[in-house]
Design brief:
about 525 residues, alpha/beta, Archaeosine Trna-guanine Transglycosylase, Chain: A, domain 4, seven-stranded parallel sheet, globular, binds calcium ion
């Protein structure tokens, strides 16, 4: 384990809950053996930044407690002042789903917030865009290079004539053929593609490029609206209909695109209530600070959004699995709690069939960042969801229609979660990171929140908000929560740009395909 030069500032540590027998070292660069904490405990060894120190002697087999929750059991005796790293901790079993309490501790609604608005693009279906993008869907990977070629030419030759349109984005993916299209699990990628095309930032304009012979035919993506849309020959291009080669394919796509651009260019920003926001929360590259700085600040922002009437989604099944009993207790009704448990059970089975369990989630970087295991990661991750009642649950790829706090079930993979949250209708994304990632999405702005000031200082041109100030005692989670909330309104209005959008850092769409490939 490499550590930077230890800090010259007085030793600082963060204990979350009075029952905790570990705390996290907050000094940049960590602390050396012999350093004495303000509570009188001396360190027996060097402890890296964001890693845990034992606040008491822990007997073999005794619980390690953080967030007031058991994150594991001591594999051996751990003397006070020791570094409590992952090698010393056996994780506990996940909470049994059948024992989770159903809506037993539903929080009372917080006082509503009025008067917060953003300048968005209203759509005919009632949703509101934060960007104005021409999206070009694809039914199958076979069409993707052709569509990408056409997109480059559309951007160069047509887009400059339509100043109200922000971008042209190909919904490129690997699905569509060579798959068991009628297996029950195929519904997940298919509805994801359908709902992606309905994302508010595409303005209700559908342009879809099909090869012709693929298993995933356009009707299947478009769904019930198929007859109407297919009757409108401005919306679907079929490459195999071309009689004059590649040039004709590209010319046809560009001609259809220009009709869409003309309509999209009519859209303009108008003041909209904050209740029109659909904000997706996610974390990636977490460290042990994520759960004490960035995620609680995002949780406070989530509460402000819910109080404003907006929709806030949290996701990442494997990162909430170990906190399932806390989430079900918070549900508004027993039915919502049961819907949440159905998603947990579905994912348990999906992992079991793959010969894995939720312990497969933490990465080497998470562990170097001080997160011992998935339980510790989960307790910090759920802090993003704030303190309001759980109002709804969506399965992977489903569109979210409820207001308030919603669990949109997704894998924790950054790009898959982002893609599924876009399909759910997300128009703003807030992403916390401790280890750091330049992550971004083309379709919705991504605000990146650093869990530690070291990262924010190293990457000032990638990180939008420094929540590490909370660990340094320079700001509270409430202060940073308000900052995130106001930044969401500014970015959603086009008044400010995220660093990811500034540099054009846009991760690919990645579909979640739990079904078989043929
Ligand atoms: Ca993630």
């Amino acid at each position: 384990m490499k550590t930077a030069a230890p800090s010259a500032t007085p030793p600082r540590f963060i204990r979350i809950h009075p029952d905790d027998n570990v705390a996290v070292v907050a000094n940049q660069g960590g602390l050396r053996a012999g350093a004495r904490l303000s509570c009188g405990i001396g360190l027996r060894e060097d402890i890296p930044e964001a890693h845990k120190v034992a606040l008491a002697d822990v007997a073999p087999g005794a619980p390690i407690v953080r967030y007031g929750a058991v994150i594991g059991f001591a594999r051996q005796a751990i003397p006070q002042g020791s570094w409590v790293h992952e090698g010393l901790i056996d994780p506990p079993r996940p909470p049994a789903l059948e024992d989770c309490p159903l809506a037993t501790a539903t929080p009372q609604p917080l006082p509503p917030l009025h008067g917060f608005t953003f300048d968005g693009f209203p759509n005919p279906d009632g949703s509101v865009g934060t960007k104005n993008i021409l999206g070009i869907g694809t039914t199958v990977q076979c069409t993707v290079p052709t569509v990408q070629y056409a997109v480059e030419r559309i951007k160069a030759e047509l887009l400059p004539n339509y100043p109200n349109v922000d971008d042209v984005v190909a919904i490129a993916h690997h699905y569509g053929c060579g798959v068991a299209i009628d297996s029950p699990a195929a519904e997940v990628p298919i509805r994801t593609l359908r709902n992606l095309s309905l994302n508010p930032n595409f303005g209700g304009e559908l342009l879809l490029v099909s090869l012709g012979c693929e298993k995933l035919q356009p009707q299947r993506i478009i769904g019930e609206g198929a007859l109407k849309v297919l009757a409108d020959d401005t919306s679907v291009a079929v490459l195999q209909d071309a009689q004059q080669g590649f040039a004709e394919m590209v010319a046809h796509i560009m001609q259809l695109a220009e009709q869409k651009l003309r309509r999209l260019n009519q859209r303009c920003r108008v003041p909209c209530p904050a209740s029109d926001l659909v904000v997706g929360l996610q974390c990636g590259g977490s460290d042990a600070f994520s759960g004490v700085t960035a995620n609680p600040a995002m949780g406070f922002a989530a509460d402000l959004l819910v109080r404003s009437g907006a929709t806030v989604m949290f996701s990442e099944v494997t990162e909430v699995r170990d906190a399932a009993h806390l989430v079900t207790a918070r549900a508004a009704t027993p039915e919502i709690a049961r819907a949440f448990l159905r998603e947990m059970a579905w994912y348990d089975e999906y992992l079991r069939v793959g010969g894995a369990d939720r312990a497969a989630n933490p990465t080497p970087g998470n562990k170097r960042g001080g997160l011992a295991n998935i339980v510790e990661k989960a307790m910090g991750s759920v802090a993003k969801s704030g303190s309001t009642a759980l109002m709804g649950v969506a399965a992977p790829g489903e569109r979210v229609t409820q207001k308030g706090l919603v669990f949109a079930a997704t894998p924790a993979s950054d790009f898959i979660c982002g893609t599924l949250q876009l399909a759910a209708g997300m128009n703003m994304h807030v992403f916390s990171t401790g280890r750091g990632t330049p992550y971004g999405l083309a379709v919705a702005p991504v605000i990146k929140v650093a869990s530690n000031s070291g990262l924010a200082a190293r990457w000032p041109d990638l990180i939008d908000v420094d929540a590490g100030r909370i660990a340094a005692g320079e700001a509270t989670a409430e202060d940073v929560g308000w900052e995130i909330f106001r930044l969401i309104l500014d970015v959603a209005s086009g008044r400010k740009r995220t660093w990811a959008d500034h540099w054009g850092l846009h991760n690919q769409f990645v579909l979640f395909n739990p079904g078989p490939v043929t």
